[in-house]
Amino acid sequence: MKIARRTFLGSAAAASAILAAPMLGAQGRPRVVVVGGGAGGATAARYIAKDSAGAIDVTLVEPTRVYFTCFFSNLFLGGFQELDDLGHTYGTLAADYGVNVVHDWAVGIDRDAKTVSLGSGYALPYDRLILSPGIDFIEGSVPGWSIADQDVMPHAYKGGTQAGLLRAQIDAMPEGGTFVMVAPPNPFRCPPGPYERISMVAHRFTQVNPTAKIIIVDPKESFSKQALFEEGWQNHYPGMITRIGPDFGAETVTVNPETMEIDVDGEVIKADVANIIPAQRAGTICQLAGITDGNWAPVVPASMQSRIDPNIFVLGDASAQGDMPKSGYSANSQAKVAAMIVRGELTGSQVFPARYSNTCWSLIATDDGVKVGAAYEPTEEKIASVSSFISQTGEDAALRKQTYEESLGWYAGITSDMFG
Ligand code: FAD
Fold it and tell me: Partner of 175 at 20 to 30 A CA spacing, among 31, 235, 306, 419?
């Protein structure tokens, strides 16, 4: 874990110090507030602060002091990463880039007054607001499960403690026990994520519990990199993994956290470990801001600007933008476009046409990495895929190892792009 170079003030004190800045000390500098210090928000804050060289006052609002990446959390479940190595702090953003980091929740947005209210009771004024709050779950989407059950049936679909809990449950599972995943419907964060997770859980079981069984209950007809995953499961984990799709009732699932039962259209499965990944929507602050279409926040494809309020930009998972998958890579790519547009609007700096890209790597087994990716350009209607690539089934071991090693380089690159 990277160590913060600066000890932060408590949130209320920090907020009051920052509040003082635009009124007393900002000397007319335009103010950008970024809500959410993850793949989209941390990148946007760093790029605006770095490229405006102090001309813009940048405040980042993020409740957690250590951001644990969801990316590579599956590799932690598989035993390929330590949880600590997935934790990153905000000290460099503050010390080296001059970003005002406020550890607090944004709890409301007044779009007329252009202020963000914080849990501490303070309000931050903005000229432009960037929202990158990630996802929240749709309550009731898996009947019988609510967020209060996450300690018994973890989702492990937000970073940090949930991944630690799921790993502990996997390691404590009785010999020959059953691991059940309830997979989410589209659209959701990280389309290959559930299936990379299945691969990593299977890998772990081959080491600690080789007679264990894995069942995926999946409401979708098909899933990302399906042929690659299915080939890998057959090669590395024969007989361990069963997927129940919508044809067999997986759209009608009820769970009971007390009895650890999963009812799939009348057929009851008793789980020893149950990983429930519910349906998803934009982080709640987007709804509080009144900029969603119900579940997601629609954006202008050329800028990531909200279609409802041009002073607000929405990045990453929370945005409805078109063809890009909800991934850390996408959020990081979108953040750089938004940072450029925001600087252009506030300081008159040059703006170039938006270009986006994404690659999602997945690890299936030791040194067996696969990837899918695309380049994107904005149209009036959406961010559209203009070219794409995907790993092929039957690739040789050297290429798969190289693909895995590429992913390690990507992780190092994106985290330093986010946190400096
Ligand atoms: P996040 O990175 O989740 O950041 C949101 C931040 O906002 C959080 O830190 C949260 O605390 C904060 N926040 C929320 N609400 C508020 C509020 N009201 N006030 C203040 N702060 C708030 N992507 C990849 O590119 N590659 C991968 O290999 C990959 N693997 C994944 C594996 C798994 C198991 C999962 C679950 C995801 C994976 N992803 C991967 C997806 C990736 O994690 C997300 O797409 C990415 O983090 C989205 O970035 P974001 O900025 O939208 O949200």
Answer: 235
Q: What is the best residue among 68, 70, 109, 286 to mutate for testing ligand 1's pocket, by most ligand atoms within 8 Å of CB?
A: 70
Give the pLDDT confidence of 109-159 residue by residue, as tens digits: 999 999 999 999 999 999 999 999 999 999 999 999 999 999 999 999 998
With a 6 A CB cut-off, is 70 part of the ligand 1 pocket? yes
In a domain, 394, yes or no: no
Distance CA 2, CA 418 (A): 13
129 ligand 1 Cβ < 6 A:
no
Q: Which residue has the higher pLDDT, 18 or 63?
A: 63
Write the CB contacts of 216 (distance below 8 Å, at least 6 apart in sequence).
Answer: 180, 181, 183, 194, 195, 198, 241, 242, 243, 244
Cβ–Cβ under 8 Å, residues 119 and 299:
no
Cβ contact 327:407 at 8 Å = no
Give the side-chain half-sphere CA count within 13 A for 249: 10
The C-alpha atoms of residue 390 and residue 325 are separated, in whole angstroms, by: 14
User: In whole angstroms, what is the distance from residue 72 CA to residue 195 CA?
Assistant: 13
The CATH number of residue 202's host domain is 3.50.50.60
For 115, 119, 133, 331, 385, the CA distances from 359, given in Å and listed in that order, are 35, 36, 21, 11, 12
Name the residue range of residue 260's domain. 145-278
> Do residue 129 and residue 169 come from a single domain?
no
State which of 215, 243, 278 marks the end of a domain.
278
Of all protein residues, the one whose alpha carbon is nearest to atom 28 of ligand 1 is 71
Domain final residue, candidates 294, 322, 351: 351
Judge contact between 253 and 263, C-beta under 8 A: yes
